[in-house]
Each structure stands twice: as C-alpha cells, then as structure tokens.
C-alpha cells in the first residue's frame, strides 16, 4: 500500500515518525556496534524535513498560500494547515537551527545517558515548532504548542540528577503552562463571537467588530504568548531555564522557542484584531522597550555566561516586539489619514522585526553553542574563569566574537540590518513624539547592549588565559562545524542581505494581508 | 429552568481567579500542580459555556477542544509530577521555598 502524503504534511510526518523510530534505531545501533547511528539518524531526519520545508517554501513564495484540511473535513470542524511566506520563513529558521543543534549534540551529549529520549524529544520539539507555524486554526495550533512546550520542559529537566535543571524546569513548566492556558482562555472569547477557530473564518467573522470582550481576549492572548516570548514582566523563567538546559537545547530554546511565542502573538493579533479598531501597537511598543531596558540592566549583573546570554535573548525579544508594535501603532494612528504611508512603514517595521527573528536565532544559537563548547572544555560557566579561553580555542573564540558582533549590530554583520530597519521605521514619522521617544530609547538600549557584548568579547578573547582556561583545547570537529557554519551565515547574510530581506518582506506582507488588502 | 450561559462564564472567571491565587500563594509543589489543573478546568468550562449559542444548536467544536485539551493537560500534569518527584528526591521536601536557589 502506498500512502500519498501531501507535501505540507511531509515535514511533520517525517519528524514525528523519526521521533518514534529513534529508540529502535538505538537498539539497532547497539546490535551493529555503531554507537553514533542514532545521532546520525536524528540529524538526517531533520535534514529531510528541512529539504521538504524548502520545497514547501518555494511553493508558498511562488504563488498563493498552500492550504490543507486534515482528513478532508473543511473548516470549521476539520483541522487546517497553511503555508504562507511567514510560516515558511519561521519554519525554515526553526528547522535549520534544529539540524545544527542535532549535529552539535552528536559529540556534545556523548557523555550523557538516555540519549534516545534526548533525540526523540528534540525531534518532537522541532515538529511542534514547525506545526505551530503551519497551523491555521487555534485548536491545531494549541496541540502543536503543547507538543513543543512539553518537549521543552522535559529537555530543560533532562539532567534530572542535578538540582538546577529540576528547579528551572518546574518553574518553566508552571509559568509556561499558565501562559498557554491564559492564551486559550482568551481564544474561547473569540470563539464565542466567531463560532469557529479557523483563522480565515475568524478574521471574516470578527471584521469590524468592536466589543469589550475582545479587548479582554486580546489582553489574554498577548499576555499568554508573552509568557513564552519572555516579555517583561513574564520573563522570569527564561534566565533560569535556558542556562539549566544542555547547551544545544539552550540554543533551541533561546533561538527559536521564544520566537514561536512572538509568532503566535503576531499571527493572532495582526490577523484577528484590526489595529484601526484596537490600538495595541502603543502597548506593544511600551512593553518592548520595558523588556529591553529591564533585561539590559539585569544582563550587566550576571557572572554566568549562559545566564548573560539568556538575558540578552530577552533584550532581543524586546527589539522584535517593539518592531511589531511600531507596525500596529502606525496602522492604527495613520491608517485612516495616510494609508499608503502607514502600510509601507508597517511592512518596513515588520520586515525588520522578522529579519531580526532570523538573525537572533542564528546569532544566539551560535553564542549558546559556543558557551557549550567552553563548558565542554573548561567545565565552567563562570565568566571570570573563562577569561582568555578564546585564545586556546581559536575557531570557537572567533565564531563567538562574530556572534557577539552580529548581535551588537556592527555594520557588516546581519544584526545590523534588522536593527536598522526597526529604527528607521520608528523614525519614519518625525512629527510623532511617542514613536520617536520609543525609538530613541531603543537606540540607547542598543548602544548599551553593544557595550557589554564587546566587554564579553574582550574578556574571552583578549585577556590572559586563567588557569582553568589555559587547559582548554579546541573542540572536536562535529562540535566546531555547526558553530563555524553559523558564524559564516552571520557574515554572508550580513554582506548580502538582499535575498533574506526579500523573504522577510514577503513574510511581513503575508502577515499583514488580512489588514492591508492588495 | 436552566441557568443562562453567562453564569457558567462567571464561574469560569472565578475558577481562573482561584487558580491564579493558588499559583501565587501556595508553597507546596503539588498544590501548584493543582493550581494549574484548576486553571485548565476554568478554560474548559469557559469553552463549553461559550460554545452554547442559542437558538442554534451546541457548537460541537467546543467539545472537540475540551476533549483534546484534556489529553494535553494530562501530559502536562504527568511532566509536572515528574518534576515534583525529582525535586523531592533532591530536597526531601515539597516546599517551594526550598527551591529558591535560583533567583525568581
């Protein structure tokens, strides 16, 4: 019997079946005396899913969005999947980072036990992430959301024989579950007004509707996704959970899982709530800048290098949320008086925000994998003891420097372009004092963040090696390879941002297609 | 005579408040897990109550959501209790104040 699986399902099916097969492959590997068989299998499943997502992306970019109704039931009952440029953009980012992390884990995790569970959970984590961005109704989104979250909790607590992962994992579980329940509670109000959970039908049913119930729903949805996105004041789980996880998983969590929260927030707000009726843009901008400021101040106090990077992830979420806030604010304030200007600024700001999603995923993934290399060699996360280790590990140290410079926004690298887009969008209407003030705060924070990135770089690269650091050696090839590849991506995307920018632009336009017609 | 749907919505909101109160004030790890369960039930009740839209029939999607979400809630509860067991092995206590080595 040949089962004809539609292209849109193939990445998901591959990832889930791969996750189920991982323990069997482990048994086969033990029988054949090939200890790395399972690791290579997990990486090849991710590579296959990435290849399938690439063909999906090409379809989504060339024409109209690809839609699919599960088991042939049309909405509102059936579950719907859809790929438009935004979903494709996010899914490609998630899956490529997943592949790099799987390759990295081959050597990094070799001293741990229970690796079949590790790889199975990594695959379900990526499957959940890809499913969240492909889902086109809230029920499907919720199922994949919980798949992603549960895999994330268990992976944070993977080394359960230590106290830190257990504590951090429990805290992450309580806060994140609270967030997803709050989000779905808000969705139930939308459901009562729309009578369906399909995004297209909800957008039609809620078009032009203004009711206090929807304000409540909007608050709950933004706050619920905000917990996973680690917006201040819901950020407190992140600096504990991300350092406690194994470094590859820290890279996944910081690089892409919090981006799924941002995706959910943008998708639901920009699709279902017209900014002309609900002025959430100002609130998002204010929270974005608050996130930036608080996280920047906290990052300065850290001695633990992974904790510092975790706070820096919150900072970058601040940029992304502010970018989306600028788009919504411009649409709500100037949408009526000068619609052309408003829509072009909104697309510009969202392009910057989404491009920053990609840049931060690569950059922060790189930093966490580098800190994992240091942890592997020097067995410490203390910045004071890691001084000068970059001299002993030239490849890792150079890649770390490139990652730090990229996130600091130094011009030839990728982080520069996305920040430039967000800032230019914020300054595009000079007569608007609120927007200019928010952007000024954003620029100040960016400079401040750049300063401590350079400070970390100076300590790791230029200082005399400490006693512990001088014993370190360069990591094995399988760990150095993903790190160097990501550093190369930072440089290439920074030097030639054109194709990524046009992809992000298409993604931003597809996100706004329910608000701006044509 | 049946209760109007709005009373169920009110009860769901009260349950939401109880769940949040439980999460904020309780010091026992298992009570925190119970708080999560109360929140889940509040969300389910709200879905069921709002799925009833007179004069039309009951919207079956609400029940689909609740059945699926119950299954997901079981997964989350299992993982949460796994963490509780491991925390008990480390600390010999279920008091959340013992878990304050990480800054909250």
- How far apart lie the N and C ends of chain B? 49 Å
Count up the helices of chain A. 19
Unreliably modeled segments of chain B: none
User: Which percent bin holds the helix content of chain A?
Assistant: over 70%
What does the overall shape of chain A look like? globular
Relevant terms:
heterodimer; A: about 525 residues; mainly alpha; two-stranded antiparallel ribbon; globular; B: about 100 residues; 3 helices; elongated
Structure write-up:
- The complex is a heterodimer of chains A (518) and B (104).
- Chain A is mostly helical and 518 residues long.
- In chain A, 75% of the residues lie in helices and 2% in strands.
- Chain A is built from 19 helices and 2 strands.
- Chain A has helices at 10-32, 37-62, 85-108, 115-134, 138-156, 163-194, 199-205, 212-229, 238-244, 247-272, 281-300, 305-334, 339-378, 389-392, 394-408, 414-426, 433-461, 477-495, 498-511, and strands at residues 66-69, 80-83.
- A two-stranded antiparallel ribbon of chain A has the order 1-2.
- In chain A, helix 5 (138-156) runs antiparallel to helix 10 and helix 6 runs antiparallel to helix 8.
- The longest helix of chain A has 40 residues, at 339-378.
- Chain A is globular.
- The model of chain A has no long low-confidence stretch (mean pLDDT 90).
- Chain B has 104 residues and is mainly alpha-helical.
- Helices cover 73% and strands 0% of the residues of chain B.
- Chain B has 3 helices and no strands.
- In chain B, helix 1 (5-25) packs antiparallel against helix 2 (29-51).
- The model of chain B has no long low-confidence stretch (mean pLDDT 86).
- Classes of the chains: A mainly alpha (518), B mainly alpha (104).
- Chain A binds chain B through residues 76-77, 139, 142-143, 146, 149-150, 153-154, 157, 160, 163-164, 166-171, 173-174, 177-178, 181-182, 184-185, 188-189, 191-192, 195-197, 236, 240, and chain B through 16, 20, 23, 29, 32, 36, 39-40, 42-43, 46-47, 50-51, 53, 59-62, 64-65, 68-69, 72, 75-76, 79-80, 82-84, 86-87, 90-91, 99, 101-104.
């Amino acid at each position: 019997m040949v089962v004809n699986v539609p292209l849109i399902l193939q990445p998901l099916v591959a990832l889930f079946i791969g996750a189920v097969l991982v323990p069997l492959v482990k048994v086969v590997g033990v029988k054949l005396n090939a200890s790395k068989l399972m690791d290579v299998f997990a990486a090849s499943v991710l590579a296959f899913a990435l290849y399938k997502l690439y063909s999906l992306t090409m379809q989504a970019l060339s024409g109209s969005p690809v839609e699919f109704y599960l088991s042939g039931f049309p909405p509102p009952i059936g579950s719907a999947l859809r790929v438009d440029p935004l979903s494709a953009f996010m899914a490609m980012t998630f899956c490529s980072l997943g592949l790099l992390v799987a390759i990295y884990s081959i050597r990094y995790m070799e001293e741990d036990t229970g690796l079949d569970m590790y790889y199975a959970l990594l695959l379900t984590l990526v499957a959940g992430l890809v499913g969240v961005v492909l889902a086109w109704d809230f029920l499907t989104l919720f199922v994949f959301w919980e798949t992603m979250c549960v895999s994330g909790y268990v992976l944070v607590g993977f080394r359960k024989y230590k106290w830190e992962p257990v504590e951090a994992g429990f805290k992450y579980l309580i806060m994140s579950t609270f967030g997803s329940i709050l989000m779905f509670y808000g969705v139930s109000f939308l459901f009562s007004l729309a009578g369906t959970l399909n995004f297209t039908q909800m957008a039609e049913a809620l078009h032009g509707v203004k009711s206090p119930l929807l304000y409540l729903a909007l608050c709950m949805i933004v706050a619920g996704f905000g917990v996973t996105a680690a917006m201040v004041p819901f950020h407190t789980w992140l600096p504990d959970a991300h350092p406690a996880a194994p470094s590859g998983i820290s890279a996944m969590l910081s690089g892409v899982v919090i981006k799924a929260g941002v995706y959910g927030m943008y998708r639901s707000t920009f699709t279902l709530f017209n900014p002309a009726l609900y002025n959430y843009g100002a609130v998002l901008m204010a929270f974005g800048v608050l996130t930036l400021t608080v996280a920047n101040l906290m990052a300065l106090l850290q001695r633990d290098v992974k904790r510092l990077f975790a706070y820096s992830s919150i900072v970058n979420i601040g940029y992304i949320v502010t970018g989306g806030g600028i788009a919504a604010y411009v649409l709500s304030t100037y949408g009526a008086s000068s619609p052309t200007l408003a829509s072009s600024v909104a697309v510009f700001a969202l392009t910057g925000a989404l491009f920053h999603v990609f840049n931060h995923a690569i950059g922060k993934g790189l930093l966490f994998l580098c800190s994992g290399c240091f942890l592997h060699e020097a067995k410490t996360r203390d910045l004071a003891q890691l001084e000068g280790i970059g001299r002993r590990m030239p490849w890792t140290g150079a890649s770390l420097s490139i990652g730090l410079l990229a996130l600091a926004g130094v011009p030839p690298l990728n982080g520069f372009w996305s920040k430039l887009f967000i800032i230019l969008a914020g300054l595009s209407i000079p007569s608007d004092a609120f927007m200019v003030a928010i952007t000024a705060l954003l620029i100040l924070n960016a400079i401040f963040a750049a300063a401590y990135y350079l400070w970390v770089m100076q300590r790791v690269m230029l200082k005399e090696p400490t006693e512990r650091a001088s014993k370190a050696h360069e990591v094995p090839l399988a760990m150095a390879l993903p790190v160097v590849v990501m550093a190369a991506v930072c440089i290439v995307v920074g030097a030639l941002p054109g194709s990524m920018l046009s992809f992000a632009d298409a993604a931003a336009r597809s996100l706004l297609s329910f608000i701006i017609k044509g | 005579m049946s209760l109007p749907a709005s009373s169920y919505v009110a009860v769901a909101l009260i349950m939401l408040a109880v769940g949040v109160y439980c999460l904020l004030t309780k010091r026992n790890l298992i009570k925190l897990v119970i708080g999560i369960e109360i929140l889940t039930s509040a969300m389910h009740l709200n879905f069921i109550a709002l799925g009833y839209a007179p004069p039309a029939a009951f919207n079956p999607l609400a029940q689909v959501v609740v059945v699926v979400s119950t299954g997901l809630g079981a997964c989350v509860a299992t993982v949460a209790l796994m963490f509780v067991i491991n925390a008990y092995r480390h600390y010999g206590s279920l008091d959340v104040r013992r878990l304050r080595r990480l800054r909250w």
